[in-house]
Design brief:
With about 200 residues, the protein is mostly helical. The protein has one domain. Helix content is about 50%, strand content about 10%. The chain is built from 7 helices and 5 strands; from the N terminus they run ααβββββααααα. A 3-stranded mixed beta sheet has the order 1-5-4. It has a two-stranded antiparallel ribbon with strand order 2-3. The longest helix has 19 residues. The radius of gyration is 17 Å and the shape is globular. The protein starts with a helix and ends in a 12-residue tail after the last helix. The structure holds zinc ion (ZN). The site of zinc ion has 4 residues, from helix 4 and helix 5.
Length: about 200
């Protein structure tokens, strides 16, 4: 009889679930479903044909071709999006749509590079990625976001904003980031679409 392999696989699956689904509400989709559906949606609406791989449930401190992981990121060197365990947990303090936003934001960085973006200022790059994330989420054909989801997205974008305006890594203030993602989302519902995310 050979059970070892099977049991190991089952226990890994259980650990993965326990590690990521709390504090999940019953009406919310779990992280794996959210990430898969969002990724499929992103592939459909992105016109740059960015083709990043996704690694999720990554622990902080894991090494990558872009250095040690300290938070979710897109690494151009491996063309891979890393979504950390900590960020999945943080996202679910808001809800499932917040996790979709994190993936969409990192995917937007892959699309910026694939699309030949000439932006060099970190704050502009980050705010455009927020805007594109909002646009993508609103434009996805098979995934829909209700008012509560949109509120979750705005709240997490606000939460990850910072006030370090003199820091070269400044990603945008809470207000700017929430506004950027909402602008993109709104753009997706209008004719001008992605033009809403062009930095003038
Ligand atoms: Zn970013």
């Amino acid at each position: 009889m050979k059970l070892g392999k099977f049991l190991t696989r089952v226990s890994i699956a259980i650990i993965t679930l326990i590690g990521t689904t709390q504090p999940l509400r019953s009406t919310e989709l779990g992280p794996e479903v959210v990430l898969n559906a969002t990724y499929q949606g992103l592939r459909k609406v992105d016109i740059t044909r960015a083709n990043p791989k996704v690694r999720w449930n990554v622990r902080n401190g894991t090494s990558s071709p872009c250095g040690r992981i300290t938070g979710s990121l897109y690494c151009p060197r491996s063309n891979t999006i890393y979504i950390t365990q900590q960020h999945i947990k943080m996202a679910y303090q808001y809800g499932d749509a917040a996790l979709a936003y994190i993936l969409a934001h990192e995917y937007a960085h892959a699309a910026q590079i694939a699309g030949g973006s000439r932006l060099r200022n970190i704050t502009q790059i980050e705010l455009q990625a927020d805007c594109l994330a909002g646009y993508y989420m609103g434009a996805m054909p098979d995934v829909s976001f209700d008012d509560k989801d949109i509120e979750e997205i705005a709240r997490i974008a606000y939460q990850v904003g910072d006030y370090e305006i003199n820091n070269s890594q400044h990603h945008g203030t809470p207000k700017q980031r929430a506004l950027a993602v909402l602008t993109g989302f709104q753009g997706s519902q209008q004719e001008n679409g992605m033009a809403a995310c062009q930095i003038r």
